[in-house]
Amino acid sequence: MRRETPGTLAILDVGHGCSAVISTDDGTVVIDTGPGSALLEYLAESGVEVIHTVVLSHADQDHVGAMAQLLASRRFRIGRVVLNTDSEKDTVIWEGLLVSLQEAANAGDIEFEVGISASNASKLDLAAVKMDVVSPTPYLAARGPGSKDQRGRSITTNTVSAVILIKCEGRPIALLGGDLDDIGLSHLLETGADIRAPILVFPHHGGKGGRATSARAEDFARRLCDAVLPSTVIFSIGRGRYATPNPQIVNGVLEECPDCWIACTQLSESCADQLPNSHPTHIGHAFSRGREHGKCCAGTFVISLQDPSIIQPSRQDHSSFVDSCAPTALCRVSRRYARATGIDNGRRGGE
Amino acid sequence: MKIRFAADILRRLGEELNPSIDRGILELVKNSYDADALMCTVELANADQPGGHIVIKDDGDGMTSHDIEDGWLVLGRSIKEQRTRTRLGRVPAGNKGLGRLAALRMGSRVLLTTRPRTEKASEYNLLIDWDEYKGVELVDDVLLNLEPEPRRTGDKHGTEIQIENLRSKIGRREVKRLAREMLLLADPFGDDPKGFKPILKAPEFEDLEALVQNRYFQDADFHLIAKIDKDGRVSAQVLDWRDAILYSADHDELASKKNKLRYACPELTFELWTFLWRTSSFVARSAPMKDSKAWVEAFGGVHIYQNGLRVTPYGDPGNDWLDMNLSRVRSPEERPSTNNSIGRVLFNDAGSLLVQKTDRSGFIESDTFLEIRDYAQDALDWMAGRRMEEAQKRREHEKAEVTSKTAETRRQSDAAMEDLPKEAKETIKKAFRDERDAVDKEIQHYQQEIQLYRTLSTAGITSATFAHESAGNPIKVIDQSIATVERRARTHLPEVYESQLKKPVDRIKGATGSLSVLGKATLKLLDHEKRRPARVEIHEVIDKVLGTYAPFLDPRHIAVDAQYCDASPYLRGSEAAVESIVTNLINNSVAAFERSENKERKILIKTEVTNGYLRLRVADSGPGIEEISKREIWLPGRTTRKNGTGLGLTIVRDTVKDLGGEVDAIEHGEFGGAEIFIQLPILGV
Amino acid sequence: MPILTQGRRINRVLVVDDEPGSRDGFSESIEDLGLDVVCEPGPMDDPDSFIASLCGKADAVLSDFRLRVIGHYSNFDGDRLVATCYQHQIPALLCSSFTDASTVIDRSLMRFIPVFLPTTTPQPEDIEAGFIRCVEEFAGNLPPSRRPWRTLIHIHDVDDSMEGLFHVILPGWNVREKIPLWRDHLPANIQPLVQPGKWLHAQVNIGAEEYQDLYFDEWETE
User: Fold this and answer.
1) Reported ipTM exceeds the 0.90 cut
2) pLDDT tens-digit map of B45-57
3) How many domains does chain B have?
4) Residues belonging to chain C with any Cβ–Cβ distance to chain A shorter than 8 Å
């Protein structure tokens, strides 16, 4: 029996980090866990006890931290966990996670699979919901972090971060960017894959990344948006950590997609140096980590898989919050900047 | 119809599946253990060559004809059906498996004699001649005769198995493994009347015989013997592995801490054997380290014997009633644990001073019991104290040895010089003297420097103590009071407040703010976490120092211009090291401004990264390096500031050197004042 | 006027601090909230007799962290006092600007300290919000930052430069933060397990934003 709506995709406010949950009648899939208790709270609140699959895009703690919690909490049954090899990663913690996963697999509690790349994209599918892995390319996955690519550029954990295009009944819903960096993006674009999607969860929380200069950061955002053509760009950030999103990145997004809706899970300090006094009313009902301390900008996003333009919170509510509570909002300032510098509005036709 | 087995299956199951002889014999010993034997003798006669024989004899419960037919002769029955404890409360050790078959097939004939405990007058004999199986097709084709015989008077219950005409010899390696495994079944002290006492008789391997007899006690590094006499007075001594007395103490020394006249408990002896298993000190001992380790692992802990009977659970695995492990965790040096020590408390209790709980989970914790525990712990504390003292002495001795080594080499080189040809002698002697003078001077200089550092540390510790205090009381009271004044004045006198009170209130708040920030700054420098080597992000450290210093620099109108390169350089070292470089350079500039007439006070902090090095430049708008050469600024005690320590830049130089870097300076740099260059190797950006 | 929440009435607050001047300072903040104040003059022997003496004297408590600087005032610190109040369902706040509080505090007690104001000059509205928060927790309404989750704990190091101090990392929380803990704050059966590299489990509120707010409770032996 199918519900009228095929389900939802939630982009969780986990603070600095990433986690997405796909909920359908056929089961629940988690893509990255973020750190802390946000994912656990969201799942518990939604009454989820069984998780069909957990996909870990790459080995960074802000994406996999709560995996250890999922196992430790003993509240959820997990079907399988899928991730990529990373021999470079912070040894003890990554090792600890892998050991607990193997132990859980030995005990028959989970299936533990290694290897996600564009080559075996279909294995993550859940009935009508398709999860196409578009990056890393098999070449990058085979080289692995710590090596160099054919042009001598360093491949890091971020380079091989999984990027997943979620489609429902053949229709693109969202591109989850993981922590993709400019080298990973170059390899992805060279494949010529069609990665257009109405929603883009921007890679690496909109951070500049270790090696990127300001100009390269902007260029990265432009190249990515040029390929995805999103109408909504989400930055999954934590207020007060790492000064995300980077203004040049926001600029780059707006130059390519001047009319798109830019929204962050939490309220960046670049946008408002003070937290709003009043309790947030605009954010949706789903668990948001920032809610308790009033740190949300848009909080957790819940997107309909039937119609990805139906999003909680609504663009309108979020906009009025930004107007009243974020005096230096990057999505506004940059927009004015973009307009002032004569970017051709019509070039992308607003799509 | 049924499945039947070819006779050859016995060979396959016995010899081929279980080739290890010692495990086979051990299986038979375990059978004895499970039969509640107190004694079990394994005799190896001429076993070091083929044709010898083995006798395993015990005083256990023996077997009835039923036990033999449905138990002993059944091969491969699963182990899981029998996990209940035996009559004497032992956990069954045998696995009733094929190991026994392997052992029985070691010779060409087996003779079993058994006298069951439950049938006072019977004895059963069974002969298995393996040669008979060679001539038949199926296992069932050989019929065994169980011959019941009347028991001779005086013969006690028990079982004896003779394996005759061994097919192959039993080597030293096998006997050793057997001896080791037998020990793990044995009562550790060998004097529990209900304990299991295996005996190995192997004339060809006398030392291994002795091992089973004596256990590993003689390999212990320390043997503590602590006694309480009938008057409650105590004494203790510690012996080394040769039984020589290392330390001893009388009542007054042992009870000194608690100042006890007597211990209120029965006469008793507490013994503890502690093993260090230091590779260097273990060479002379009899058994390999891993054997005695395994044994102590099995029996470690302190057991209690009341009237010669062991009282559980004291000394069982996991029982640590003296909290030895906890004490060891608290101060690991020279402390025994249940993993490296085995011991016992023995006492006779004619009355009933100590009563066991009805569920046999130990003694009721009466005053007497607590007193016994107290005494045992006091004795352990005393031993730990003596061992600590010794360790301390050892370290001091090592230090002294280094000095006397210098003297010794000097004597040697003097002697060597006397043998030189006359013409060279004087020149070389003089060169040596000069060199020695220089070294001595250097040492003297280091000693002075150490003294200076000690003085500064004391100053630091003292100021930290005060910083704690000022962050606490007086400032807190001022803060609270002014907060009340502000709040109440704003409510009750809003206009007056704005026009007449706000300014002084803000002034007080600002001043207490700076005070407590400065106090915290001192504490931050002393945060011991920073002294641990780790990944240090250089820009982060500079930012932290500048943050801490801001309330100090702002009132002095000193502006800092931090220009960082577009990267995040990091190195491995202690945060304290990098912090002390930055702090001392800022201090240096701040001091320079006091000598300067320049109105503008600016400090430039600039970083650059080139080829795996970080270049840090700190320049100020002070008077520059004057009245002193730029080489001298790095030397301790050289300062142009009265009352300065002259140590700041020396610390910078030393710290940079420790991090593998270099220092340099120019008299008048980018801002007109001194400019210091630091180059540090980094791990990455 | 009294605070009324969840059918509970807070009318009189007891202020605990070893420094008399500071007791007055705290009192004034509470008075400005319209509540009555009594000051604890000391000496206090143990938390339980403190609770017994509280009966009828006050409905809530505000305590400083360090209570043993000035002699003959208390045998224990504010963390223990506030936690004991909480366990007896008496609203209690801990206040301190003591720099090292977050390092030396007993993190098993933090479970029972819902509000730790890092200041010595709490505003009246903060005090009111704090008491309401306590009462909410008594009614079972824990905010996400205070909810316990069974959590994997990695013993990062045992600090040999300071007796009894060790650091843990919570992979599920933040791998970059090493959290200082003290061995003697742990239950006796857990203490011997504190070895570098060990993995343990306990209940931790990993929804907390800052490490200062974390508590560790119900440690598991294996």
Assistant:
1) no
2) 888 888 889 999 9
3) 4
4) 143-145, 147, 149-152, 154, 156, 169, 171-176, 197, 199, 201, 205-207, 209
